[in-house]
Amino acid sequence: MTDDAPEPRRIRLNGERFDGGRLPIDSLPEISKYQEVVRLIARAEWEEDHPGEQVPPDFDESLRLAISDLRDGSADVFVVFEQHAQYQTYQAEADEMANETIAAAYSGEALPPLPASVEYDARDLIAQIGGTLSSESDSIEFYVNGVNAAPVRIDVVTRLEARDILLTQDFLVDSQPVSTAPKDDKRADAIVGRITVIDAEKMTFILRTPDGKDLKARYVGNPVVLEDIRALVHPEAEGPVTRVSGLLHSKAGEPWRFWTTDKVEQLTFEGPWAPLLTELASLRTDWSDEGASYPIGFDVLDATQTLLSAVDLASDSNPAVFPSIPGGVLVEWVGDRGVRSIEITADLKFELFSIDRGQREGDFTETSSITDVLTFVREVSA
Questions:
Q1: Pairing between strand 254-266 and 242-251?
Q2: What proportion of the chain, given as a percentage, has pLDDT over 70?
Q3: I need a labelling partner for 341 at 20 to 30 A (CA). Which of 14, 155, 190, 310 fits?
Q4: What is the DSSP letter of 319?
């Protein structure tokens, strides 16, 4: 397999009728059901990204499985998708969703989210896998985590247990689901965490958030970020704090994974203000309850760190520090004299404001000069 070739999916059929690498024709539905569920999920993902548009006529044909290898022993089948570059991301995402669902159903874990429009149908298709097994000695092994990883084992007993999970978990028995969960969403966003795993073959990495959740991120179509990711990866989640920006896919209102990655940035804050600056860097799109609000750029945070370091040198009086809705930072002193503030705007301007107690109007100045800012800080501290 070349570096550019898609990773094969391994499906091993065990039992007397599969000895010698025989693959009975009536067992082929086990592979076609898998193909069908991946197509179904991929189509739903495409429709979500292209509301009101017709699915391209070549979409299903572009997500077609082919047997790449059939090995001796049991029927040890290796299949690959004949990928079309235009739809590769949808195929890869759908393939992963299908495998996560299979793994969860056969381990008794909570099922992962699927596109709401096809969730029941996709689970039903997965529940049908294993339907051709004719005896208790027959089984199917799905290698959902790679061709050499431990497989999920499907037999006549485990299939019935998994079917109950697939068709009843989160649903009313024998009825179509009525979902009240928030709509799936893809939008530009940023999340802070630590990169713990990178898979260059699949062009994915894992971002572990401060609350311990692992988010998978793809950088398909943007390999230039690979060197940045490699410099920041640490297997024990002790690496540098990192902000990942890109198209974030949310499920039921919660971050799920990055559909694409546009930028990977390391946080390098130091000193007593570092925890606060890291918290400000963690703000995502629409963090405010007051309406549209934006993440704070690292250039703004760097300027804030420079300002606060100057404040520490000039005064023992710590200011209050707040994020501003447009993506800036407000540094404010409130005292007996009145109010003094410096707002660092998203375009790296400094807005200096002061008003004495009892005054009805204050003084406002906008500057790009750090000298003017430091002079203002010294006056505040006097």
A1: antiparallel
A2: 90
A3: 190
A4: P
Length of the chain measured in residues: 382
Chain mean pLDDT for the chain: 85
Residues with Cβ < 8 Å from 43, sequence gap 6 or more? Answer: 55, 59, 60, 118
Query: Domain total for the chain?
Result: 3
Whether the pTM exceeds 0.85: the reply is no
DSSP bridge pairs for 9? 79
CA 381 to mean position of chain CA atoms: 45
Amino acid in position 123: R
What one-letter code names the amino acid at 335? G
Contact 192, 209 (CB under 8 A): yes
Question: Which of 168, 199, 229 marks a domain boundary?
Answer: 168
User: Contact 217/258 with Cβ under 8 angstroms?
Assistant: yes
Instruction: Mark whether 118 and 247 lie in a shared domain.
Output: no
Task: Say if CB 248 and CB 186 are below 8 A apart.
Answer: yes
Residue that is last in its domain, among 112, 139, 168: 168
Domain that holds residue 331: 298-381
| Residue that has been written with the tokens 């809705």 in this structure | 325
Domain containing 227 — which CATH number? 2.40.50.200
Residue 210 domain flag: yes
